[in-house]
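Model it.
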Amino acid sequence: MDSGPSEHDKRRCEWALGDPLMLRYHDQEWGTPRFDDRHLFEFLILEGAQAGLSWLTILKRREDYRRGFAGFDPHRVATFSRERIESLLRDPGIIRNRRKVESAVTNARIFLNVLEEYGDFATYLRRFLPDMPRHNRWTSLQGIPASTPESRALAKDLKRRGASFVGEIICYAFMQAVGMVNDHVTGCYRYTELLQK
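Modeled.
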């Protein structure tokens, strides 16, 4: 009986090849719809931290971010004091960029404001992409846009609320990561798996 392709033989998005951490992230997380508040807050912070860096750099530090940012509990991060921020800026496990660390605290407060207004962050996100998850049909990485009208609208609204490190490209990377959109290329085995979720 044919059990299908082995793990080694499965076709994957090219960006995931070459590093075991990226491969695991691609296979288990990226593009998988998951809309609980803590997960969405985690990716809002991590995508902002990634600005100007590789995603692998952030993945390697993810556990340090979880430790430093209170398990990505937005209620706790929103209360971080100046002393806590200074402590984070001495932590070699995270990206020690003052603007990024301070923005994470500010963005936590904005995240909580959104929760108060909408009940949960996914409801807010559906304002920008009502049909999420959206299954795109890209046949190559070259066809995938860096931003979309929806990510531009999300970025504009978050900035209006006072958030930072939430530009249209960061917002689209966030949308891809949390599964608002399925941007696995159509030849990738995960594309087909996610169609069935």
